[in-house]
Each structure stands twice: as structure tokens, then as C-alpha cells.
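To illustrate this point, what follows is a protein record of this kind.

___
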Amino acid sequence: MISSHDFQRLKFDTLKHFWGYDTFRDSQDNIINSVIEGRDSLALLPTGGGKSLCYQLPALVLEGTCIVVSPLLALMKDQVYQLKNNGIEAEYLSSELDEFDAETVYNRCKDGLTKLLYVSPERLTNRVFLQNLEEIQISFIAVDEAHCISEWGQDFRPSYQNIKDFRSQFLDIPCLALTATATPKVLQEIKLKLNLKNPEIFKKSFRRTNIRIISDKISDKYQRILNLMKYNASSGIIYVRTRKESEELVKFLQNNSINNVDFFHAGLPVNEKNARQNHWLKSNDHVLISTNAFGMGIDKDNVRFVVHFSPPQSLENYYQEIGRVGRDGQPSSAFLFWNEQELTNFDQILRNQTPTKHEFYNIVSYLYSGFQIAENDLAENVFQLHIQKIQNFTKASLAKIRNVLGFLHNQEVVFFNSNRSLSSLELKINPDELDLLAKKDAYFIEQLLRTYSGLTTHKIMFSEFTLSNKLNVDSHLIKERIKELQQKNYVDYIDGALASIKFLKHRDDRAVQGKYWHLFEQIQKNKLQKWEEMKFFVRNKDFCKMKLILSYFGEKEVKNCGNCSVCEQQKESVFGRNVSQEIIEILKQKPSNVEEIAIRLNYYEKENILENLIYLLDSGKVKMLNFRTYAYNHD
């Protein structure tokens, strides 16, 4: 039996060896001690508080495998990728893995090699998973993004209710619940619904004193970003709503000689995403323009600014995303750009993407009937999905169809893959039958078998581009040849460049019209409520921005931050500030436009600068060189 003293030494040695740190942050040490001592624990750590380390480190110190329950496959993959890069044995299970790959993961856990096994909450009721767990030593259960268990949380996942029943099968195994965004109501639900017994509760204030929140009502956002980037010499993230927006903004900046930028979104191939992410992580001045697909699980200390090109959908999302700046404690900025027109536009988008009950049922019914799946049947195959065909039949908008597909994916009714990924190939005939095929087909299949040895035993994942280089044949021709083999039923092929769907549950029309519709409806109402709260935050000019966030998350007796754009305005009205004189001092150095002056004045509001410039022009202290540039008038 290892002594308490030895455990403490082992804990710090592990921290140093795998993460390179000598000390823990804030509550990390106490949370880790609680887990090691076998107590149920609940940790509310804001983004940047080092949540992941609180379960990853004890998983290495304790005997057995830690079961990590996580809601997003992308997040699981990122975590496992990073852990393996750090030399830590970690794996994930998901519906996209075939039986062969899943069996390999289970065996590594049974042999005691894998220290962290990431699973979705839906898997906790899977018969094969539960059977395999009987032969795996479990150290503890970590529930990441625990707010998903709450109906009042922003990411409600009913499958998180499975955790309570799952825990009842492992009574003596402790549980650590972690979240970065939870109101008091949500925290109470986490405790009850996870059946945490006398949990140690660790709650850190959401206040980030080093982040300055700048809310800017603005119409020409492109020009604002350009001016911001002209003076930028640090690493940052610019969040946009759509993939198209990320690409267009990068193109605009590069056309204006800003080259330390790149776009990032879920539509990029995996190797491209990893390359861009790694370049950004290692750089001191690179800026990624991204959808919210970027940032989860990323730990970079020296991010100096984050820009929200448009307001996000909820205060939870907003706080999580601005929490990615200034993790080293140095002064950092969070810009929020908005205008009334886009708030109205997003109101409309939310309405347009919410189907009626009739539309919801039509979309789901077509999915099943389109692939000839009868009531109570479950198809084994992965199908290529053409969303346009669903639209042609149901007459529903693409936004509504994608919303329903995303919902079905989150509930693990289906596995919907809308991203570019590796293609899959499975041999449907016995290799001994090759002599019976036409020479052309037999020769091509032989080439495939030589290239992919595993093809005779299980489904393989592959890249047509890589295969085309090996065979010295155009990748388009390779796709055509494989499709010909598929039509003859020699192989089963899924093109990774297109969307695909796999059905994970038996068709149950009654559940679709009842349970699933009511759940979908509730989630849509939650979305609308969160958006209304976000709009209030955006528009409000009377209350400190940080104070509004802290109050939202249930902190009492909070004080103004003193440095957000609202606090700056209030200080000026109380104590006075000679902005006109500050503008004169800037223009004495060199002619500047309004944007440049705003940046030099620590991102002061443009409207107020324009008011002061009008006064200075009238008094003859400044002059205009052209319709945008102002200069000090020496006359």
C-alpha cells in the first residue's frame, strides 16, 4: 500500500514529467487529492482553469483505467490526440469505430495499458461495453461538461441521465464531475442526477481580472479587423459564425498585406486542421479566424486577444470562448462586435432553422424510408447521405434538416458525419474468389490487397489521394473504379468527402413523434432563451460587462471590473477625461484615421472619438487630409 507522502511525491513527479509544471493552478491540487482519496467531487472551474488535468493526472497515479464521459466526439479525439502526444496512454470509443478497432481498445484496457478511456454517455448502456468492463479495472469515473445533465443547461443531453444507473453498477468507484459553465440551478441538478455522495465541491470565481471586455456597436467590421491586425503583434482568435465567413475574412486580410492569419473550421481535412492548429500553438503572433469548432481542449498561455465578429448564441459560449485569452495572467482583450441588423438577422435564423412537429417527423421518416429501413429494423451499413434529396422530398429548408440531423446525432439515434474524413472500404468477397472475376476487376482488387493487408479481415479507412500516389493513378479514376466494384457488390465503399449516416437505434416511429419530438422542442426553447439573455448582455450600456457575467453564473455581491468598455465610460463621466487633448497628442505624432485613434486610445468607442473630432475640426485644432484621415493643424 503506497503511503500518503509517497502519493504526494508521485503526484508532483507526474505533473513535472508529463506536463512540465512544478506547481498546480488554483484548486487543481485539492481536486486531485479528493479524487486520489476516493471521494465524489464536483469542480466548477472556468475555461482556462485547467479542468482536464484534474482527472488526467489522478488517472496516471491510480491503478486501473479512468472512464471519461464526454459529450462530443471531436473533443474526445482532440484530448486523446494531445494525451498521446504527451506520451500518455489514452483511447476513445465511438460509433464510427468498427468491431476490430473497438476490440483493440478493450484489450489495451484489460491489459492495464490504457489509463484514460473516453466514451459518450450513450455508450454507458451498450451491452458489449458493459460486458467488457467486467474485465477492466476502473480507477474512477470523470464526467466532463457535466452541465449537459441539466435540462436548464445550454447543452442538455438526456443520455447524461444514463450515468446515474451506470454508477449504481460500480458502487465503490468515485466520480468527479467537471464543468466550466454552470448556474447555481445547474450545479444542484448535477449533484442530484449524478447521485454524488457528500461531494467535495470546488468552485472558483468566474472573475478574470486580466481580461478587458470591449463591446463595440459597429457596421464596418472588416475595416475594424484590418486596423486591429495592422497593430497586432500577438497571438489571437477571431470567432465568426460560418465557414464561409472565416475564409472570406482571411482572404480580405491577406489581400491587404496581413499574412499572419489563417482560417479554421470543421470542414477542413484532419491533417490540415492539425497542421494549422499546431502552427498557431507554437506561434507568438499567429491569428486563427475560426468557427466555434476551434478552441475546445486547447491550452495556449499567451493568447492576447479574442474577437467575436458576431455575438455567440449564449453567455455560456461567450464566457467559454473569451476564457481562452490571457491564461498566463497577462493583460488581454476580448472584443465583441455587433449591430442591430445582425441581431435581427439571427432572430430570423433561429426561427428559420426550427421545424414544426410535422416537418420534424417528415425529415426523420424520410431518412428511414429513403434507406428502406422498416419499423423496428436496424440497418448495419453506413450510407452516403445526399441532403439535397431530403430537401427535395420534404420541402424543408437545409437549415431545418441540418438542425434535425444534428439533434439525432447528439442523441446517438444516428451517427451523422458532415465533415471530410477518411473513406472506408470493406471487401465483400472471399480473396479466393478473385480468379472467378473479370481480369480488370481481379487485378485492381489485388492491388488494393497488396496496399492494405487488413482488407481481408475488416473494414479499413483510407485516403484516395494517398492511394493514387502509390498506384500512380489519378484519384478521380480510383474513386470511379471502386464505385464500379461496389455496384457489382464486390466491396462496400463510403466516400469520406461526402456526408454519411449510420443508424444506431432501431426505427421507432412512436418514439420519434413522442419522446424525441418533445426533447427536440425543449432544446429549441432553451436556445431561444439563451439567445435572449445574450442580446441583453450585448445591448446593455449601464452595467459592467464582467459583473453581468458573474451575476449570471450566480456570484453574489460582485464589484465592477473597472476596465471594460462600460466601466471606462462611467469613469469618464464621473472623473472626466480630456479625450480631445489625447487625440491632439496622437495626431501630433502622425496623421491617423478614426480606427487608428481608437486603438491608440486603448480601443475607445468610435462614436465618442467622432464627437471629439467634430469639436476639434470646428475649433481649427485639427484638419482633414482626406475623407478619412485627420491631422494636427499647426497653423
